[in-house]
Design a protein that fits this description.
Length: 400
């Protein structure tokens, strides 16, 4: 009765049990979508032999296990392979490279291994000239990226291999992937410097390499990628300074370089990035008022000295945690804040009077500091008494 079925979709359900074997013998089937959350079992050893016209295989968010069969190559018309968030394991077969029209592969969050120290299946994928998206994150590959990664399709726009136990260097051949928009190799054990060949990735919009063991410096190579909107390099061992040319990246919205070995100076050009949304770094601050749309500025766990600049009052969207002196101009931003946290620092002096008329939707936490003097509180200020602990405020006056 299902011999003419071309599209089978039971996605976003809570079906349980195993996939009926008959579904793998419908020769005209083009799309098989079983994102049902509780489907279990293994794929039949020869499951693609009866699916020569299959174009889309969607099996994400299930409890499937076992290995991906070698017969995957018989799904010769396959364009999308989606098996994210299952319990597949073992080696990804090199026969996957025979899927010559494949455009997207997503295998995130399984238990796949590389199969060899040289990442064989990744090399096999160099035969797939239409491959545009490759997501392999959260699998224990425990290997190095081979130089053959540079032979992947120039159509590749997204490559994710986050938290895969990768070690060694990022091969210089990665610069051959000139179509890349997003590169995510975070949460691994990669070493060495950011390859200079990244400069060839002129379309790159997101460079994410956090939580590795990378050293070297942030060079002008990064500045020469004009479309970068995200740079995540935090939790590495990168030294030197943030280059002055960082201010040329006018598309930049997210910058994270904290917990490296960077020197304390921050280029003034950074504060010219008026559209930046998230800034997580270490160093010295001089002027930050240009960051008018920022909603997160994280300067915690540093060795800053001196005062918070008065230009902070120009930041209208800020939700963050800061250290240093609180200037009077801080009251200028309170009408748009949801939360501000100055707790557990060494702030001193009086709390600015401009904060006394703070609106009800603001939480202002200055606990565990050395403030002193008077502070008048609007009764609508949420949970304010609990937020003044461990200070030397001797007079808090309520008023309506």
């Amino acid at each position: 009765m299902l011999g003419k079925l071309e599209w089978f979709n039971v996605g976003i359900n809570y079906l349980s049990g195993e996939i009926p074997g008959g579904l793998f013998n419908i020769s005209v089937l083009q799309v098989l979508s079983i994102g049902a959350y509780k489907i279990s079992g293994q794929l039949p050893l020869h499951f693609c032999l009866g699916l020569p016209n299959l174009k889309g295989l969607y099996m994400a968010n299930n409890e499937l296990f076992g290995e991906l069969p070698q017969s995957i190559s018989n799904c010769s018309s396959l364009e999308v392979l989606e098996v994210t968030e299952n319990h597949f394991g073992g080696f990804i077969p090199s026969t996957i490279g025979e899927l010559r029209v494949i455009e997207a592969i997503s295998m995130n969050q399984n238990h796949f291994r590389s199969g060899s120290p040289t990442f064989n299946f990744l090399t096999a994928l160099t035969n797939c000239r239409y491959l545009g998206r490759l997501f392999l994150s959260w699998n224990p590959f425990m290997t190095t990226l081979p130089s053959t990664v540079g032979n992947l399709s120039t159509s590749l726009v997204n490559f994710g291999c986050n938290d895969c136990g990768l070690h060694g260097l990022i091969p210089i051949e990665i610069g051959n992937l000139t179509g890349l928009l997003g590169l995510n190799l975070g949460h691994n054990k990669l070493q060495g410097s950011i390859p200079n060949t990244l400069e060839k990735l002129q379309n790159l919009q997101a460079l994410s390499l956090p939580f590795n063991e990378m050293g070297g410096f942030i060079t002008d190579v990064v500045c020469n990628l004009p479309h970068l909107s995200l740079i995540y390099l935090h939790e590495n061992q990168i030294g030197g300074t943030i280059p002055q040319c960082i201010g040329n990246l006018t598309a930049l919205r997210y910058l994270g370089v904290s917990n490296n070995k960077l020197e304390s100076s921050i280029p003034l050009s950074l504060w010219q990035l008026i559209n930046i949304l998230e800034l997580d770094l270490s160093g010295s601050i001089t002027y930050i008022g240009n960051l008018k749309v920022a909603y997160l500025v994280d300067l915690s766990s540093n060795h800053f000295s001196g005062a918070i600049p008065s230009s902070i009052g120009d930041m209208q969207s800020l939700i963050n945690e800061l250290e240093g002196r609180i200037p009077e101009s801080i009251g200028n931003i309170m009408m748009s804040l949801v939360r501000i946290n100055f707790s557990h620092n060494h702030l001193y002096g009086e709390i600015p009077r401009t904060l006394e008329s703070v609106s009800s939707f603001v939480i202002f936490d200055v606990s565990f500091n050395d403030f002193e003097g008077k502070f008048e509180r609007n009764r609508t200020m949420e949970a304010i008494f609990s937020l003044f602990t461990m200070n030397y405020l001797h007079h808090i006056q309520d008023y309506i």
